[in-house]
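Look at one such:
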Amino acid sequence: MSKSQALEVYMAYPRRCARKYALACIEKSLRDLPFDELLDRVKRYAKFCKDQDPQFIPHPSTWFNQGRYYDIEDDPNCWPAAPEIPVAEAWEMVREAIRTHGGLKARDIVPAIVYDAAKKVGWQRLCDMNDFSRADNFKAFARAYEAGHGGSRAKDLGIGVQAEE
């Protein structure tokens, strides 16, 4: 454990305040958990907090003193990760699969999580899509896709809908 490791963890945390005390709390936490593991948990938590209002993110000293980095062991879905493929990009994969193969070989073309979301909406519904139903189909797909990742990113949904209109 070193001060530079504590500083790296502090810089990864989504809210930075009371630095001196926060670093002391992080150093104490580093006695409980290896640096790499603590840093991974902090990064995952930071990703989860990305779109949250900072006033609702606990001060780092609170988070580390309360051992909230252990929450993930009690509930693996406590900080659901956003999908690696953005909704708009996943939607384009579905549209391309329909355009080129009519959805028949989509399972072989698109990633499983994208395929599962499209399946929930209904491949037939997606194949029958027209200019008038595209926005509604996108919204249904986005909800199914995000639900497969344990959360929703309203900002992504808005961007994707605007891109489709």
Residues 113 and 148 are 7 Å apart (CA to CA). Confidence is low (pLDDT under 50) at residues 150-165.
